[in-house]
What we know:
This protein is of the alpha/beta class and 272 residues long. The chain has helices at 23-30, 53-66, 76-80, 90-107, 125-136, 139-145, 157-165, 178-184, 188-195, 223-232, 251-271, and strands at residues 35-39, 69-74, 111-116, 148-153, 172-177, 199-204, 206-207, 213-214, 239-241. Helix content is 44%, strand content 15%.
Amino acid sequence: MQGRLSPLIDGKIQAFPWPCWQNEFSIAAENGFGIMEWTLDQERLYENPLMNVTGCAKIRQLMSQHNITIPSLTGDCFMQAPFYKIPKQRESLLKDLSNIINACAELGIKIILIPLVDNGRLENTQEEKVLLEGLARFQSTLKHSKIKISFESDFEPVRLAKFIKQLEPECFGITYDIGNSASLGYQPDKEIDAYGHRIINVHVKDRVYGGGTVPLGQGDADIPAALQALHRIGYGGNYILQTARAENDDHVGTLCHYRDQVSEWLIAVENN
């Protein structure tokens, strides 16, 4: 996850790393990371290099120079300003989504994550209706560009399966967040059984039940069980480290440690 190799921005666990976003490409390459999930905030949206021609050209250069791909984007902007909750800004925010899809198409980013959690959570059927109606506008564009919109959600497994069933698999899927599920008390096997066939991206982190993010292995997430359940259904997508930040400011070393930890779990699952 972009920003995890850099110091915190304004004390936030996740935010676009403005002062050092370019440096993250070389740091990632030097430490054996080959992919990066981009982050996009509503604040300064069009200043983000993804969202302008000059910035896109620089990103493309850095990707080529350091052999880094950007397969996905976490749209925290959609959670910070959800179009389905703000009627007066709806058209403007949908225009933002259109521009984000176009920018992702330019760089070959294939998954755009809309977090239906926290400020973006769906609280009633009207919000869900407005969300679905808004997304329907982009279906042909998504098909043409081969981009999928993916959702994180706090829905319980059967409810999330019902929600995603309303949307075409060619254009829409689920990002399974292991830590978020643990914080809600959900069981990996039940989640994967309910909607595993629609999972196209995975976020790896650990959280305590009813609480926040903690270092891997110190919370209530049964990460090996989640990885085993994903392996059982043949999941072949990416595992994005959206992990706790370093307590000693060694952000690079901490992320490398988490990467190695998850790799060991995955090897154990495959050999089981």
